[in-house]
Write a structure and sequence with these properties.
289 residues, two-stranded antiparallel ribbon, alpha+beta, 32% helix, Ku70, Chain: A, Domain 2, single chain
């Protein structure tokens, strides 16, 4: 399995070498089909330009800085050096476990993205991985921790997933909205025992085992079918190539300028007399020696 980060799980004096691998495809949060915006008239892909309204022109990347908007239209400029100064620099390459908790206590709402933790290839290095996995399976525990990747700090939870350790990156507490308002409104409502009994019957009639293969998207299937149908019944449209106009050049004038440039760069030749005089002087010098 291809890993995107390699380090170790660290707790106490224990270090378990692991690699971090993606559990989902990079585009898993999007459809497997992506679209580009085209100009209907010529089918040319549209480019997004960085435009300054004040100077009424496109600006390059080297002209752009980050700004934190403190109030409407007022910004604090943040340079890349400012961000680099507070980046986490951690060469330990370790996922530091700070606590073991009951896995059932951690609500999935805190989970951001799932990764697999792959053990080292050496058999001897795999044993502590398996030992931690079995111990967590037996106790129903999960491990809270933190690690640094590409200068950014990540809070995480490590949990057993089958015979694999999975790592969930986690949202901060301040990033998760409270459900207290909903709980308050729900708590004031009472249900009758007969109604509750009927609701349980409906649930029981639809009860079954979880099958990941059922997690399919009708929209994706319909989208693929529609695109394939269009491809079979319609020619592929390509934007017409715009030929750049060749500037009209006076050929004789261009040749003359080229010759002049070559002559200007060429070093001046020594005169024949000077060359002979120089050789006579060198001969005389050898004789006197």
């Amino acid at each position: 399995m291809r890993t995107i980060w390699n380090g170790s799980i660290s707790f106490g004096l224990v270090n378990i070498p692991v690699g971090l691998a993606l559990a989902t495809k990079p585009a898993a949060r999007q459809s497997d089909v992506s679209f580009r915006q085209l100009h209907r008239e010529c089918m040319t892909p549209i480019k997004q330009k960085r435009w300054c309204e004040v100077h009424d022109r496109e600006v390059g990347r080297d002209e752009i800085v980050k700004g934190w908007e403190v109030s409407k239209g007022e910004f604090v400029v943040v340079e890349e050096a400012d961000l680099e100064a507070i980046m986490e620099i951690d060469d330990s390459k370790a996922i530091e476990i700070t606590r073991f908790v009951d896995a059932s206590e951690v609500d999935p709402v805190y989970f951001d993205r799932t990764y697999y933790l792959a053990p080292a290839r050496e058999t001897a290095a795999q044993r502590p991985y398996v030992l931690l996995l079995r111990a967590m399976q037996d106790t129903g525990k999960a491990a809270l921790g933190r690690f640094v990747r590409q200068g950014s700090e990540h809070l995480c939870l490590i949990r057993p997933k089958g015979d694999t350790l999975a790592l969930e990156t986690m949202f901060l507490a301040e990033d998760v909205n409270s459900q207290a308002e909903i709980e308050e409104s729900v708590g004031d409502n009472k249900v009758k025992d007969a109604e509750l009994g009927l609701a349980r019957q409906v649930i029981d009639s639809l009860a079954g085992e979880f099958d990941p293969a059922e997690l399919t998207s009708e929209y994706r299937q319909n989208l693929r079918q529609m695109l394939e149908a269009k491809l079979d019944g319609q020619e592929i449209t390509r934007p017409e190539r715009v030929e750049e106009e060749t500037p009209v050049v006076d050929l004789m004038e261009a040749l003359k300028r080229s010759v002049e440039e070559v002559q200007d760069k060429k070093p001046a030749k020594k005169t024949r007399a000077a060359s002979k005089g120089g050789s006579r002087k060198r001969v005389a010098a050898r004789k006197s020696a």
